[in-house]
Fold this sequence. Notes:
CATH architecture of the largest domain: 3-Layer(aba) Sandwich
Number of helices: 12
CATH topology of the largest domain: Rossmann fold
Largest sheet: 7 strands, mixed
Strand content: 15-25%
Low-confidence stretches: none
CATH superfamily of the largest domain: NAD(P)-binding Rossmann-like Domain
Strand order of the largest sheet: 8-7-18-19-20-17-21
Number of domains: 3
CATH class of the largest domain: Alpha Beta
Helix content: 25-40%
Radius of gyration: 23 Å
Structural class: alpha/beta
Mean pLDDT: 95
Amino acid sequence: MSIQSGLPEGFNPQSYDALVVGAGYAGAVCARRLAEACGYKVAVVEKRDHIAGNAYDCEDEAGVLIHKYGPHIYHTTNERVHEFLSRFTEWTDYSHKVLANIHGTLMPVPFNHKSLKLAFGEEKGERLYQKLVASFGQDKKVPIMELREKNDPELSEVADYVYENVFLHYTMKQWDKTPDQIDPAVMGRVPVFVGDDDRYFPQAPHQGMPKVSFTDLFEHMLDHDLISVFTGVDARDLLDMGETSVKVCGKPFGGEVIYTGALDQLFNLDLGGLPYRTVDMVFETLDQDQFQPVGTVNYTVSEDFTRITEFKNMTGQVVPGKTTILKEYSKPYDPTSGATPYYVINEPENIELYKKYRARVEGILNFHVVGRLAEYRYYDMDGVTLSALELSDEIISNNH
């Protein structure tokens, strides 16, 4: 693999069998698989000055390894995804835990046995817990809608507490919506965990952090003789989109093009911008060993920020006397601001707009879209990896 800034003088796309736009999960997975399975010579172009997409991590001035675009926690139930990614990193045994700061008391989220006793007191909390066990069984995630359907005043009280203190205000901060604008179906899915497991992803058999870093994982994934990576390159300067074909650097391109960026940006927002929420990331380095007891604390009823992440609690890194925390402030996304689009606003009119952009590339031979932005959907890391594995399966089978 070679990584270089910008395209070299005389760059000739025709000397490559595939052009991959974006060096995040979707692009890196496809690049690796096409190089390995097809023997393709692959050019990866990345708009940012680094690889790894939003999973990019680096050391800050205090020497603390931070996730520049917000916390990324690896977890998956998918054996294929785990097997593939594990080729490029070893994993720590970190299990993610989240606490909610509810009026100054830190309670596990999802709400569980311990949370009940903290919220309602030892005696009543235990009684409520035993009632939940009797109604639903142990070690089950139960949506609050199901608690309400039991028509039991005490179970409804639990549902109301979780709705008000864990979900409602936090969601209003995250999405800037009033309660009546929030889909009742979404509200009803907020879970209570009937059990003592306080891991955030209790169902995931594989979870942890890369032993070195996420960036290191990507360096290994892209480390192949047939892969060249060019950072600081905006694909819009290279691609000329026709109805049935695409030109690269002004000439017809006969290879595969895999596009992982935003489709509205590819067409210069000519049908309008796809809406997202973005986040102001405020990093603070503190002169102390530890700030909070877990990786993430959600501020569900107070503060303007949604959560605080402390990276050393996730990575296990030892940096005596220093720690770095991240506060996240959710806000609307302006596509002209240079901000990062994070969260798709999954409403019917937005999906319809996306479909119009998507229709414009469907007829282009050997042009493929994959990934969070290109598919206009929210993905965890394992989900986008699986999507890229499945797309590359399709390309590989069509070329053998």
